[in-house]
Please model this.
Amino acid sequence: MFLIGYIRYDMNLLNCLKAEKVNTNFDLLPDGIFVLEQDGRIVDVNNKVLEIFKARKFDIIGNYFSDFVEDGTNVLNDILQDNRARQVKSVPKAKDEMPCLLEVTVNRNLELDNVYVCVRNVTAYKKEQKVITEKYEVAQKIIEGKNEFLIEASGGVLSNLTTICGFSRALLDGIGGALSEKQEKYLKLINTNSKDLSYDLEKLFTLFRAESKKFVYNNKMFDLISLIKSIERVYKKDIEDRKIIFSLDYSKLTERDCYLDSEIVEYILRSIMDIFIRFANLGKCSLNIGHPPVDFLKTMDFEANDSLDSQRYVLVEAKITDLVFSQEELDNIFNTYYKSPIKRPIGLKASLNLLKSYITDFKGDIWVYSKQNFGTMFTFVLPLR
Model:
């Protein structure tokens, strides 16, 4: 398109009127090319112009660009001023003829005192774009309706599962009397599977709620270290029961005040702990929370310089040695609907997508590194305000 400036125009009107078509580079260009004088008078066109306007060369040459493009003179001036393409309509030759939609760009050759105008017929693309837009809008309405229905249904579904989990746990604790070995085995299976299903569905329903864009963040000031300590207490028994080798270090976190949505920050940290509880078997888990170095913030394109304290941000590094992702999985790690060749729980996919969504909404970012014999490291940065 922009090779026009290299075309050397050296042709007079008589040569243009010849019946024989010269197969030159000018005529082989994929877009229509007008060669104009400064006043907009057409002195040459290539074969693509003849095809677009369904005209012969001697019907075009000698006329003005405005005879073929609506408001042609003003269009050319506007494009020359801001160097941006325009979409305009052609001038129909007959009353019943529909105009074409053209994309127009312009170059000026000061040496030859000519203006080169490139035109492309984008009528078909516009129609396709309209069809795609209409299909997208229909699909978007279906998705929104689906999300609203599932969000409304989530309370009842999760409530029923909570009942199953609670009563099966109560029976295992002997509230209904002594159990046979077979009864205990089946109840443990019911309790474990119902808890896993409840976890997966809760994450999935939360993801649908986030996708609906109806969630409103409630930012307020809270003590981040107190929040971390409360989460540590909640998971203490699960860690001991699973005999997980777990370490938590937030000693380097010196800034306690945080102005974000405390419930979402808690949800983010609990999601990490849930991954530990669910996937740690024989390996180790660690959660380190502190402040990122300024150089790290600069490298990752956060607002930071030497005069700013990196305590404006919190850095979380969560490592689990028992969970490993393939490279293909890492490339699609935050795509909930990616069909992984390795079967993964729905809740894990939903959790990772939610982590990405919440963290980026807070103007933070998250990265995942995974390798055999190392495990997986989730690293994310959050601004404290």
Q: What stands out?
A: The longest strand covers residues 101-109.
